[in-house]
Input
Amino acid sequence: MQLTTTHPLATLVARLSRDMPISDEAQRAIMALPVSVQALEPNTDLIHPGDRSASCCFVLSGWMGRFKLLQKGERQFLAFHIAGDIPDLQSLHLPTADLGIGAFTQVTVALIPHGALHDLMVHYPDVTAALWREVLVTASITNEWMIGLGRRSGPRRLAHLFCELYVRQKAAGLVKEEGRCPLPITQTVMADALGLTPVHVNRILRDLRAEKMIQHRQRTLTILDWGRLKVFAEFDAHYLHVEPQLM
Amino acid sequence: MQLTTTHPLATLVARLSRDMPISDEAQRAIMALPVSVQALEPNTDLIHPGDRSASCCFVLSGWMGRFKLLQKGERQFLAFHIAGDIPDLQSLHLPTADLGIGAFTQVTVALIPHGALHDLMVHYPDVTAALWREVLVTASITNEWMIGLGRRSGPRRLAHLFCELYVRQKAAGLVKEEGRCPLPITQTVMADALGLTPVHVNRILRDLRAEKMIQHRQRTLTILDWGRLKVFAEFDAHYLHVEPQLM
DNA sequence: CGGATACTTGAGGGTTGTCAAAATATGTGG
DNA sequence: CCACATATTTTGACAACCCTCAAGTATCCG
Output
């Protein structure tokens, strides 16, 4: 992934100016941020629920998930995060995390101390606006998941998730071959994101395959019929706030 | 409600300094904000999905809900809002709303222009922090709803909602009699918040009544056995970020 | 009083969950 | 590179939860 070969903060600059221009001066200030790069092994947690954190994490590569655990051990994912995301920006103002953040794959993150981010935001209003936007787009995605949990059937929910993950990865430059993208999560993880059981996810997956809409092998998702999948899922990409041509 | 008799912005000051101190100077600046008070009839919408808004709304009295509509007409509520809440603070940085906001009861809101709020936040960092916090606590509540939709059974979900609404109203000073609070929403609205059908909500309500945990008559909720309700719902009020003695 | 809205109840069906086991894939150490 | 242990996927049978449809009752409001 080329992300890891360039300076980590250059990719942050790129991400924040994706939707809105940022002044040269602010860009230099971002590049000057103190940052420590950290690697995570698959299936390890970066943040445990209840932790107090003193830094925000910017995902350089790999897949992560934000989740909460219930008493009986059930798990619910609230979001998946890919390269370019900042999963815990809210820790800046709400330092005790109520959600955990874990890695599905090998992951590299850049940790940026709260203090440094705070200073940056005081001096550069356009960076503040970009970071706000980031938080709010993440919230918008969470909202859409919630619509799905409340009002979409299992099959539609899974189809919708696939649409989302494909478009987001395309927007992040992670789609190398049209119609294919990484999907390095197990059916159990999908189930914990969709509020279903692994068994049921498996059956839905079989049906979507039989309908020739998608395929999922070797941790990559192949979309066989984007048009039909989109209609079936009632997918409308506006909530992702990406460039219109990706929708 | 005494909220409507005092200056509307005084109640905003009170709300924002509920969790964090705000300097006297900042308090005066808040009181000097330009604001227009607006009344809403029951079952009318303040914001329609897709609207671009130029002001934020602060709820002075009444009950509101944030929702999204799907193609087939299904509705999903993502949050309920009571006096003291600021439902659409995020419109400051994401001006096109993807969610609608409607009134369940008679409602009065104070509308504050985006520009004025922006200026305020540039000059008073502690106000900025308080408003951020407000957004993030709202997001935290939405997250908990999501957990419920994904991983709690219907009865638990409804019980959990009742716990939440009671504690939030208590924190807002809206509980006049211990164990009783307003609940001015129909079973259909509950269903659209919980991802259930009105018929099923009705049956769950009957069961909770039969179990002598709650009662719901004349738009008020009576909690008959707080301890048992809390355990049944697996309710842990931390996510509400209110004072510990209310939990 | 009449109409509309909200609530209540019943019967039956479909989606999803539970339990259990087999088949396949993945990883590890010899 | 094979052998073994582990995790993941797949399938079946059955049960539970929740939905749909339908009708009747209560409540609110003009």
Summary: Chain B has a mean pLDDT of 93. The first strand of chain B starts at residue 36 and ends at 40. Chain B touches chain A at residues 68, 70-71, 74-76, 78, 90, 92-94, 98-99, 122, 125, 129, 132-133, 135-137, 139-140, 142-143, 145-147, 149-152, 192-195, 234, 238-239, 241 (CB under 8 Å).
